[in-house]
């Protein structure tokens, strides 16, 4: 039996499982179920699955929106010896024909035996019927409780995590029981998780690794109190997030950088005393580049409500390591490494400078690798680089996936020595991991490596640009004509004179920041920039929004 399943069951049937649980249904009709109740429901669902013919090692997909239904469903799949895949969820603006085509491609890729269907996606059963996809409705799954979990090995898949943007060319990270256990244990230690006192609050989507692993699997595994709402709940009213932290005494939360920028702006419009955020000890910022300006805006806004600035925890992670790679030291807040831009871009060295140095680059320190993981920096030939030397980040350890599932078949992720190439550039300083950017996004001009985050931060500093909605687009990559454009969202879109002035100011700020002028600046109305299902900006897709170069 896997350590992961053993621990999950022991937690559920113990005192902690009876005392702690998850609250769902906010802000309408909140309902709390203990982890013991979730487990009891999961055993009945698992019994129905096994009685219906589900086999050990089966791949089962889940399409549901209610966390209260998803939690026992995914646990049931694990109890029945299968692996879970959370399908990307269609929204009101989704073309259902395209969604069906993409979803069928995913189901074939993971060799899904069954889809578990729950509200509000029951209406999609007709689409599955049309294509001959086997499914069971979650509200109809109720059998005799499974007497004991189906025995599985540590190297069997537990979670097939779709990578961000997995649609036309899908890819699933094969996370084993051993991977899941190891990373959960590493995060438990690094974050000093305490089931007896911690309360986790989250709106993150469960089809994303941070939501599924960090804010459902881990609290269910360890028996930590959880308050769980959905992304539409947050987007409809961003202040619901601090409201829930306040009312439930939340101690731990997490989100990508863009969400902190949004909630900071909304909290500034709320009266003093509206929230009590004094219990918050860990606000993890990860899943996309961390902007120190956005973090400061969040801590400044939260200070009025008693939130300690040191609760911010910068983190580096990826689905390929199950979730976490590195966590900053607890209660240290945002720590920034200021480096010389010339040495960084031309010399690939992170030479420290004073923060007031002109155009100094600011990179958050993401802390040391989690227990059980190693991080190394190498050059293009694989030679190990030294302290503050920039190169390719790679990671090794028990939490690292053995491979992907792709439409062309399985694909290994590790080299002969067990190292995974993360695809990121960065460096190490005093044992802490610093991420400069994705290698595929680095803009190379005049022998300099320009990181798109520097361009984007400059653009976002211009009044009128929507917070968190700027993309630096690499053009003519790999050619002598390589250049870049900047695409932003603004409420001024459509007003010719205002757009002209805004574009001019963006261009000037970018020149000040990186010494290079963008080929063009494109201003779009809010909601136009392409994003992954989890809300992250998609640089590669944004290239189509830039008018063709002459």
State the gist of this model:
Helices cover 31% and strands 24% of the residues. With 550 residues, the chain is α/β, with parallel strands linked by helices.
What does this structure look like?
There is one protein chain. The strands form 8 sheets. The chain has a 4-stranded mixed beta sheet, sandwiched between helices. The protein has a 4-stranded parallel beta sheet with strand order 4-3-5-6, sandwiched between helices. The chain is about 30% helix and about 25% strand. By secondary structure, the chain is α/β, with parallel strands linked by helices. It has 16 helices and 27 strands. The protein is globular, with a radius of gyration of 23 Å. The model has no long low-confidence stretch (mean pLDDT about 90). It starts with a helix and ends in an 8-residue tail after the last helix. Helix 15 links the parallel strand 26 (about 485-490) and strand 27 (about 520-525).
